[in-house]
Amino acid sequence: MIRWQSDVSLTTMTKIGVLIKFVPDTNSRIQLKGDAVDEADLKFVINPYDEFAIEEAVKTKELWAKSNLPAEIVGICLGPTAAAKALRDAFAVGVDRGIHIVDNAKTATDSRSIATALAEACKTESFNLIYAGKQAVDSDNHAVAVMVAEKLKMPHIAVISKCEWTANTEATVERDVEGGMKDIYKVKLPALFTANKGLNKMRLASLPGIRAAAKKEIKEIPIAAVKAGIKVSGWSLPPERGQVKMIEGEPEKQAAELVRLLHTEAKVI
Amino acid sequence: MKKVLIIAEQKKGSLKKASLELLTAAKNDEVHAIIFGSQAKAAADELASKGVKEVFWIKDAKFDHYHPEAFASACEEVIKTLKPDYVIGTASSQGKDLVPKLAARFDGPLASDCVELSIDHAKGKHPFFSGKALADVAFEASTISFATLRPNSLAAGALTGAGKVTETSSNFDFASSPIQYQKSTEATSDRPDLTEAGVIVSGGRSLKTKDNFKILFDLADTLGAAVGASRAAVDEGLAGHDMQVGQTGKTVNPSLYLAFGISGAIQHLAGMRTSKVIVAVNKDPNAPLFQKANYGIVGDLFVLAPLITEECKKQLGK
């Protein structure tokens, strides 16, 4: 099965897509209200892994500019009206324009429906390259970007911590796997990469960047009828532990007692 | 009874324990398996001996290393013939990549990174916000559905009866793929991976230097444990990114989590709160982690960690 075109030449404007999600800050305390997560007091930010994706897109554009290869970076965000802020924040560090799939009714709830909607928006742009975070830190599915790639019939390498361009259409990427190991792949464009921590650190927005961000275009599109395959039937908070057992005494005695308790009481060693 | 295809994994020829957990998720079902790699014979035989009806062993050495397109293509061939109701894998590096790709290819529902999963009941439990909240998830009716299970979530299972191993190949054309596997770097240690470890020894910024982590490595090696670190320790360069536990690092699920000098920031708690037993060692009696721990010691980690290592050797004969 042919899933890509082998002789892509990037002679005209190259388009880089970045998938961006607006999520509660990782310092948030999560509470439930009725049958849902209480979002009232949560502070929303760009998903931390998407920051790496944004920065890598900007770095790639800068690199290509050196070979007189113009590129445009398009941020794609699915979320409620308020999520447009994620695109504005991304504009301030170099993303050129945005597509906001507006979903105030939470139509897209699982990875399939979200990936379907994102892929449809990507299809209208014909990206040569897409970056995304390896996972969103709210739903933690670790799946959507890979599914978007598959729906676009675009090859992907996920969880990368290094990306080196060997040609304008070919990169060598390092994928983080278990045990601190890295699998290294050579990938021809078009392709989608998901970013891990360690890939880079997002630059701070400059004042001119922030000013320019206000004028950049966000195209709003309504969410299409997408079908979720997984339904959340209930929420719970993790169970609290009982009272902590503090071990007192001299260090020697504390160490001996801890090991005894772990061995004979908790039976975990 | 459902027909289930499990995507099994092996490491250096041994079946991963996490793959046997998938048998527990599908304990009343007709289970088939697919496993990759030229070294996978013993692992494939073990699956067959544990009641997996047919194990498809992709023996070609080209499948010794993960390749998203190739692995998906090989699975697709098996799925098209077998027509399973469910395809389930481990929420490992491979599983978190391959299973979503297949779910998208077959347009089936996907329940990711479940900490509970029952194919019989068509439901599972998935942690959101790194476990700050848990969602009960249910599969909508579909001709094929997909799920991944977090390691250490269920007991290793075995089904009754014995099955067979079928050596099989794939038509995937590696040479013309836009993805070319180059090589893998060496593992940074022989210790178990954080995401699969039964015991984790973890350190915070109070370790002060990278070299000081040695006292935690010594304890970890005595217990056969993995070593983790807090974000603060990683950001200050005391430990590598691959060691970070927490909401922007690894989410871990061990039976025992020993935290040295970790105060317990909310994003760290998120990554380790499902640990069955938590031990906090900290010189600050007000460290928030004491509120989440089963056992606590207020004291100097530089004194206590070596003493605990000695006691483990003495009391456990290690």
Question: What report would you give on this structure?
Answer:
The complex is a heterodimer of chains A (269) and B (318). Helix content of chain A is 27%, strand content 30%. Chain A is an alpha/beta fold. In chain A, β6, α2 and β7 form a beta-alpha-beta unit. The N terminus of chain A is likely disordered. Chain B has 2 domains: 166 residues, Rossmann fold, CATH 3.40.50; 118 residues, 3-Layer(aba) Sandwich (Rossmann fold). Chain B is built from 8 helices and 18 strands. Chain B has a 7-stranded parallel β-sheet, sandwiched between helices. A 5-stranded parallel β-sheet of chain B has the order 15-14-16-17-18. In chain B, strands 8-9-10 form a 3-stranded antiparallel β-sheet, with no helix packed on it. In chain B, β4, α2 and β5 form a beta-alpha-beta unit. At the A-B interface, α3, α4, β9, β10 and β11 of A face α3, α4, β7, β9 and β10 of B. β11 of chain A pairs antiparallel with β13 of chain B.
List the helices and strands and how they pair.
The complex is a heterodimer of chains A (269) and B (318).
Chain A: E1 14-20, E2 22-24, E3 32-33, E4 36-37, E5 44-46, H1 48-66, E6 71-79, H2 84-92, E7 97-102, H3 111-123, E8 129-133, H4 144-151, E9 156-167, E10 170-176, E11 182-188, E12 191-195, H5 207-215, E13 218-222, E14 230-236, E15 245-246, H6 251-265
Parallel strand pairs in A: 1-6, 1-8, 6-7, 7-13, 8-12, 9-12
Antiparallel strand pairs in A: 2-5, 3-4, 9-10, 10-11
Helix pairs in contact in A: 2-5, 3-4
Chain B: E1 3-7, E2 10-11, E3 14-15, H1 17-25, E4 30-36, H2 41-49, E5 54-58, H3 68-82, E6 86-90, H4 95-106, E7 110-114, E8 116-118, E9 123-128, E10 133-139, E11 145-149, E12 164-168, E13 179-184, E14 199-203, H5 214-223, E15 226-229, H6 231-235, E16 256-260, H7 266-272, E17 277-282, E18 295-298, H8 301-316
Parallel strand pairs in B: 1-4, 1-6, 4-5, 5-12, 6-11, 7-11, 14-15, 14-16, 16-17, 17-18
Antiparallel strand pairs in B: 2-3, 8-9, 9-10
Helix pairs in contact in B: 3-4, 5-8
